[in-house]
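Troubleshooting: if your tokenizer reports a length mismatch, compare your output against this known-good record of 71 residues.
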Amino acid sequence: MSFIKRLKSVGFSEEQAEVFASEHRRIIEDNLVTKDHLDMRLRELEYQLIIKLGGMMMASVAVVAALVKLL
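Known-good structure output:
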């Protein structure tokens, strides 16, 4: 049984059922996170992490190089 038919079976008018179903669908689509979106965000976070870790590694190498020069 379709969603609209179920709403009508419990007392919704045709118009009420259609508006309710349409708004329900819109709310879900606006707030639903897809796997593709999650995958994209994960890749963005991975790239940011790689960049930050790379920067920290370069800074560490520079500090070690400076300390070696002092010795």
